[in-house]
Design brief:
Elements lengths: L1 H46 L3 E3 L5 E3 H7 L9 H4 L10 H14 L3 E7 L2 H4 L21 H12 L3 E2 L3 H6 L18 H15 L3 H4 L8 E7 L3 H6 L8 E7 L1 E3 L2 E3 L9 E5 L19 H9 L4 E4 L7 H12 L9 E7 L2 H4 L11
Parallel strand pairs: 3-4, 3-11, 9-10, 9-11
Antiparallel strand pairs: 1-2, 5-6, 7-8
């Protein structure tokens, strides 16, 4: 019995040693990848070009690489890594807690939906340090972001982190989840995000009793002029073509746009990830973005407050303006979905506290 116990103990120690060794090797690779990202971000900034070429036609966004490799970005560390115009607005935590508190006092739920960085979902298309198969998704390299989400949850703030979902669907049958030549997620990324948001909120009593409609859809192939493609300034570089799912009223062959509804109980607020494939013009096309996919999933239109700039402070300023125009604006809301690029935590002009009512 003693010999058996010693053998079991030694076996356990051996297993633990191998596990720790594997973990250490993995952590070392992650550190090297992040160092590489920091160098690429610095190089892009020095060149004055935000586009960072990757492999197999992929391009990445310099400021995003800067965020991913920045390290801790809240508390005392915030001012060291933030692009905020003033140090006092560098830390995102106080502004987020304040936003949540104001909504809670009005009886409104907040759901934060930060868009994962493309370089976290597809790191193997940028770094040679990672060799990943379709069957084995990459390890997460965003430890600081995960730590920040845990901090937000301790404050009672709901955070829907879609990173694991996106990693598991990197090679989805309808296409990649991010544009190769643009800083935004793809049309298919919008589809998966809307479906996951609906799963997260589907048990809310007010949602179960809401009047719903069924909207037809149609997938189509769409050539785009991505912002990274434009930044390269090479007109000979072939444009990216991807699949988008358009949603509307009428028939699948003749879809009519679903207008956003100021009276909707669901408010979608944030940056251009809420406008891409929805607003047309420089947002590529209409009727295939996150607001459209949410209308399909929920059965009714959402209220949209998306901005082409930062989803941090300017988006919330827009909400104050709406309340100034309509004193009853907030009385109709049940849920605010705050969706913005994760890089906003360090790359925005700053995180100011903004009142939601006059």
């Amino acid at each position: 019995m003693i010999r058996k116990g010693i053998f079991t103990l030694l076996t356990g120690i051996g297993f633990w040693t191998m596990a720790m060794s594997s973990f250490g090797a993995e952590a070392d690779i992650v550190r090297k990848v992040l160092d590489q990202y920091a160098a690429l971000a610095q190089s892009a900034e020095q060149r004055g070009n935000m586009a960072v070429p990757g492999k197999e036609g992929w391009f990445f966004f310099g400021p995003e690489l800067r965020f991913v490799s920045a390290g801790p970005f809240w508390g005392k560390a915030a001012a060291k890594v933030s692009k905020a115009t003033k140090p006092e607005f560098a830390d995102p935590l106080p502004a987020i807690i304040d936003f949540h508190g104001q909504l809670k006092k009005m009886g409104i739920e907040l759901l934060m939906v930060p868009v994962p960085p493309k370089s976290v979902i597809y790191p193997d298309f940028l770094s040679d340090l990672l060799t990943i198969s379709r069957e084995n998704p990459p390890v997460r390299i965003d430890a600081e972001t995960q730590a920040f989400y845990r901090l937000l949850r301790k404050e009672g703030i709901q955070v829907l982190d879609m990173t694991s979902l996106f990693l598991a669907n990197r090679f989805h049958r309808e296409g990649a989840l991010f544009c190769k030549q643009d800083t935004h997620w793809s049309g298919n990324g919008c589809v998966l995000a809307a479906r996951r948001i609906r799963e997260e909120i589907q048990n809310r009593p007010w949602l179960k009793t809401a009047r719903r409609s069924v909207y037809p859809t149609a997938w189509r192939s769409l050539p785009i002029e991505g912002d990274l493609w434009k930044a390269l300034g090479d007109k000979n570089l072939p444009r990216e073509t991807l699949s988008v799912r358009q949603v509307g009223t009428g028939s699948a062959g003749d879809l009519k746009s679903i207008a956003s509804d100021l009276k909707s109980p669901v408010l979608l607020v944030g940056d251009s990830h809420n406008l891409i494939f929805h607003a047309g013009d420089d947002m590529q096309t209409r009727d295939a973005g996150l607001p459209d996919q949410l209308a399909l999933e929920l059965g009714f239109p959402v209220d949209l407050a998306g901005v082409r700039g930062s989803g941090a402070t300017p988006a919330r300023v827009n909400l104050l303006r709406r309340a100034q125009r309509d004193p009853d604006y907030w009385k109709r809301k049940k849920l605010v979905i705050w969706c913005f690029a994760t890089r906003e935590f360090t790359q925005s002009d700053g995180w100011k506290k903004v009142p939601l009512t006059p």
